[in-house]
């Protein structure tokens, strides 16, 4: 929020200077007499950059060159103007294009910060609409899938996804440290949940475990190779600079015959393998008990 506030403040201050610079009269009346077209171009540039996503997302050098070209096109072709260079006119032209391009730069910063805030609000709002269920809500279906896999000897894999927030960079004030950390974790969790949900099939089960807030994916009819492929796809979510993900997977029957055993094996693999690594653990000693409800 601070960046947004600063970008708004800087743009307001700059536009105030641009539209009132002629009133300064530092060395006498009409010392700085900007062309009317410069004021119009400044307003048009501000409106267009704030309105059109493709324009505000242009690289800064490209955007600056684009609007510099528009400036010279207007000054030299469309609207007859005093000379661009020559004694007093050289300094006037440099002042005009300097003030104009600074306005373009500050407007792009404001537009990008507004876009970031908008995306953050969407992601946090998404958290309440993601349909990522809690453990208790998925207990019956998971038990049914485990039973089906045991009875018909079908493959089934689970994947544990754990957030790694050690790389998250925050500008934290001591007074509001806890609040900012909570906000960031909710934001990251919402983004991860959306990204994971987009990669899953309709038959897959995604829920948040009660212990630790980890995301669990139960993927029926998925063997070890299929689980590895899914983890590789989900690994692309770790490309974000804001967070990284830890993955661990386990497959029925190689790693366990019950959900609880699979979950323990997958959780062990998370901590053994580290960021964006995949492993199916060695077979563990299991008991042939019926499916164990999700804890």
**Strand/helix succession:** HHHHHEHEHEEHEH
Extended strand count: 5
Number of helices: 9
CATH class of the largest domain: Alpha Beta
Beta-strand portion reads: 5-15%
Rounded mean pLDDT is 75
CATH topology descriptor of the largest domain: Alpha-Beta Plaits
Question: What is the H level of CATH, i.e. the homologous superfamily of the largest domain?
Answer: Reverse transcriptase/Diguanylate cyclase domain
Largest sheet: 5 strands, mixed
Inertia-based shape: rod-shaped
Distance between the termini: 39 Å
Cα Rg: 29 Å
Q: What class do helices, strands and sheet pairing give? A: alpha+beta
Bin the helical content: 55-70%
* CATH A-level architecture of the largest domain: 2-Layer Sandwich
Number of domains: 2
Low-pLDDT stretches are 171-176, 274-295
Strand order of the largest sheet: 1-3-4-2-5
């Amino acid at each position: 929020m601070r960046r947004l506030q600063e970008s708004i403040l800087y743009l307001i201050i700059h536009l105030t200077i641009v539209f009132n610079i002629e009133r300064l009269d530092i060395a006498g009346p009409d010392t700085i007499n900007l062309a009317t077209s410069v004021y119009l171009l400044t307003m048009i540039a501000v409106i267009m950059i704030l309105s059109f996503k493709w324009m505000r997302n242009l690289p800064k050098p490209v955007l600056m060159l684009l609007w510099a070209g528009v400036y010279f096109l207007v000054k030299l072709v469309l609207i007859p103007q005093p000379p661009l260079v020559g004694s007093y006119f050289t300094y006037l032209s440099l002042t005009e294009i300097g003030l104009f391009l600074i306005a373009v730069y500050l407007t792009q910063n404001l537009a990008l910060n507004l876009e970031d805030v908008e995306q953050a609000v969407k992601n946090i709002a998404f958290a309440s609409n993601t349909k990522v269920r809690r453990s208790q809500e998925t207990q019956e279906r998971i038990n049914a899938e485990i039973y089906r896999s045991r009875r018909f000897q079908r493959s089934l894999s689970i994947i544990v996804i754990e957030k790694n927030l050690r790389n998250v960079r925050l500008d934290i004030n001591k007074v509001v440290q806890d609040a900012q950390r909570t906000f960031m974790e909710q934001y990251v969790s919402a983004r991860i949940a959306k990204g994971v949900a987009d990669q899953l099939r309709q038959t897959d089960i995604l829920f948040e475990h009660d212990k630790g807030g980890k995301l669990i994916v139960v993927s029926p009819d998925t063997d070890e190779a299929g689980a590895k492929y899914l983890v590789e796809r989900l690994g692309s979510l770790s490309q974000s600079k804001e967070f990284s993900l830890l993955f661990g997977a386990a497959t029925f029957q190689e790693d366990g015959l019950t959900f609880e055993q699979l979950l323990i094996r997958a959780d062990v693999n998370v901590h053994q393998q580290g960021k964006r690594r995949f492993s199916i653990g060695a077979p563990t000693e299991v008991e042939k008990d019926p499916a164990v409800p999700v804890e």
